[in-house]
Automatic annotation (TrEMBL):
A GO molecular-function descriptor: ATP binding
Taxonomic superkingdom: Eukaryota
InterPro entries: ATPase_AAA_core (IPR003959), ORC4 (IPR016527), ORC4_C (IPR032705), P-loop_NTPase (IPR027417)
A cellular-component GO term for this protein: origin recognition complex
Protein name, entry field: Origin of replication complex subunit 4
Keywords (A to Z) from UniProt: ATP-binding, DNA replication, DNA-binding, Nucleotide-binding, Nucleus
Family to which the UniProt record says this protein belongs: Belongs to the ORC4 family.
Origin recognition complex subunit 4 C-terminal domain boundaries: 217-400
One Pfam family in the UniProt entry: AAA
Domain ATPase AAA-type core: 55-201
GO biological process: DNA replication; response to sucrose
Subcellular location(s) of the protein: Nucleus
C-alpha cells in the first residue's frame, strides 16, 4: 500500500472516530470515579435490585452528558436485553403535558408491540403509563425515562414530572427517571410536591482535566496496530504523534483553544478541522495542522465586524484607542474628532472627512456594538457630548486592521506605536 493511500485511510479512520461519541468517551469511563461508572452503577442496581431511582445529569452544552448516557444505556441493553425499556423525551418537543403523555404512550406501545390510539385522552394516556409501570414491575422489567432539556419540563404545572415520580412511589413499579440539563439549578426549579418525590442524585459533567485531555488526544489520534493499515506506517505515525503531544508548543495551542471553550464537543470540532489539514504526502499529523485550524475554528465576531468597517470608521476606532492609551477614560465624539484632526495635521493624510460624515460613521459603529455609551441616562443629551467607550481590545483592533485588505498604513503604524 502506498504512503498516500495509507494516509487517506488513516484520515478516514480518524474522522470516523471523531464522529463516534461512544469511541471518544470510552477512555474517560475507565475510572470507577468517572460519571460513566457512577451512572452505570445507579441504573444497573435499579435493574438488578428492582428499585426506583431518579437522577440529574448537569453540565454545559457539549460536555458529554448525552454521549455518556447513551454509552451506559448501550452497555446495559447488552447486559440486560430483556429487563430494560427506554423512553426518550425532549423538553423542546414534549414539555406540553398532553404531548408528553401521548409520546410516552406511543413509545410504550412500540416497545411492547401494543396498538397505540391517537384519540386517547390525557387521562387515558396517564392511566396507561401507570398500568404499564405496574405490569413491567411485576415482570421485573425496568422502564428508563430519559428527559432531555429537563428544565423545560420543570416549567408550568409540572404534571408530567409529578405523575412520573408519584407513580414510582408504588412498590409494584420499577422505573428510573434521568433528567439531562445544562442548568445547574434545574432541581431548584421543581415544585415542592415534585421535589419531595425526587431522589436528588446529581452528576456534574465538568471540562476534562489536563491529564484526561492528554489521554483523550492519544486515544483518538493514535492509529491501531491491528488494522488494515501497514504496520510500519502505523508505528511511525504513533511515534511522531507522541512526540507532538509532548511538545510544549502543541500543548499551548490546545490549551489556547480550551481556554475559550473547554467542552469535549468543541474540542472534537477543533480536532476534526486539524486532522483534515493533514498532509497526505507525508502521511503524518504536524503541529502546523493544529495552528492552522485554531484561527479557522475560533469565530471572532468583533474581528469580522472590523473587516466590514469603512476606512473612516477605522480611523474613529484608532482615535478612540489612542485616547484610552493616553488615560483619557472619559471622552466623547468631540474628543474623538479632536484626535482625528490631530492625526490628519501630523501625518497629512488624504482620508479626512466632514464632521457630519464622521458623526454618521460614529453612530454606525455604535449600532454595530463596536462602541457604546458609558451612561444610558443621557438620552436627551446630544450624541456628540455623551461619553463613549470601545467594546474591543487592542489585540482585536490590531488584528482587525491587519486583516483589512486596504487598511491605511498610517493606522497600522499608529497601533504598533501604541502597542
Amino acid at each position: 500500500m502506498g504512503r498516500e493511500k495509507a494516509a487517506k485511510e488513516a484520515l478516514n479512520l480518524l474522522r470516523g472516530r471523531l464522529c463516534d461519541p461512544t469511541f471518544v468517551f470510552k477512555p474517560l469511563s475507565d475510572s470507577p470515579e468517572s460519571n460513566y461508572s457512577k451512572l452505570k452503577f445507579i441504573i444497573s442496581s435499579s435493574v438488578t435490585e428492582a428499585c426506583n431511582n431518579s437522577i440529574l445529569l448537569l453540565g454545559p452544552r457539549g460536555s458529554g452528558k448525552i454521549a455518556v448516557l447513551e454509552l451506559v444505556l448501550k452497555d446495559l441493553l447488552l447486559e440486560y436485553p430483556d429487563m430494560i425499556s427506554v423512553i426518550r423525551l425532549s423538553g423542546l418537543l414534549h414539555s406540553d403535558d398532553n404531548c408528553a403523555f401521548k409520546e410516552i404512550a406511543r413509545q410504550l406501545c412500540v416497545e411492547h408491540d401494543l396498538l397505540f390510539s391517537k384519540m386517547a385522552s390525557f387521562d387515558d394516556n396517564s392511566q396507561f403509563m401507570i398500568a404499564m409501570l405496574r405490569e413491567c414491575g411485576l415482570a421485573h422489567k425496568t422502564i428508563i425515562f430519559v428527559l432531555n432539556e429537563f428544565d423545560l419540563f420543570a416549567q408550568g404545572k409540572q404534571r408530567v414530572l409529578y405523575s412520573l415520580l408519584d407513580a414510582m412511589q408504588s412498590i409494584t413499579s420499577q422505573a428510573v427517571v434521568i433528567g439531562v440539563s445544562c442548568r445547574l439549578d434545574a432541581d431548584q426549579l421543581l415544585e415542592k410536591r415534585v421535589r419531595s418525590r425526587f431522589s436528588h442524585r446529581k452528576l456534574m459533567f465538568l471540562p476534562p482535566s489536563k491529564e484526561d485531555l492528554e489521554r483523550l488526544l492519544g486515544h483518538i489520534l493514535s492509529l491501531p496496530l491491528d488494522s488494515t493499515l501497514p504496520h510500519d506506517y502505523a508505528v511511525e505515525f504513533n511515534a511522531k504523534l507522541q512526540n507532538m503531544l509532548a511538545d510544549e508548543k502543541f500543548k499551548q495551542t490546545i490549551y489556547t483553544y480550551m481556554n475559550s471553550d473547554a467542552t469535549v464537543n468543541h474540542l472534537l470540532r477543533f480536532l476534526f478541522r486539524a486532522v483534515s489539514y493533514m498532509d497526505l504526502g507525508s502521511g503524518f499529523l504536524a503541529l502546523e495542522n493544529f495552528k492552522t485550524a485554531l484561527p479557522n475554528i475560533q469565530r471572532q465576531p468583533k474581528l469580522e465586524c472590523i473587516t466590514d468597517c469603512s476606512i473612516l470608521e477605522l480611523y474613529i476606532l484608532v482615535c478612540m484607542k489612542r485616547l484610552e492609551v493616553k488615560e483619557q477614560n472619559s471622552y466623547n465624539f468631540n474628543s474623538v474628532m479632536t484626535e482625528y484632526k490631530r492625526i490628519h495635521d501630523t501625518f497629512q493624510t488624504s482620508d479626512y472627512y466632514a464632521r457630519n460624515v464622521c458623526l454618521r460613521a460614529f453612530e454606525h459603529l455604535q449600532q454595530r456594538e463596536l462602541i457604546c455609551f458609558t451612561d444610558n441616562r443621557g438620552h436627551n443629551q446630544s450624541v456628540e457630548f455623551r461619553p463613549v467607550k470601545l467594546l474591543i481590545s487592542s489585540y482585536e483592533l490590531q488584528q482587525g486592521l491587519k486583516s483589512y485588505r486596504s487598511c491605511p498604513v498610517i493606522l497600522l503604524k499608529l497601533m504598533d506605536r501604541e502597542a
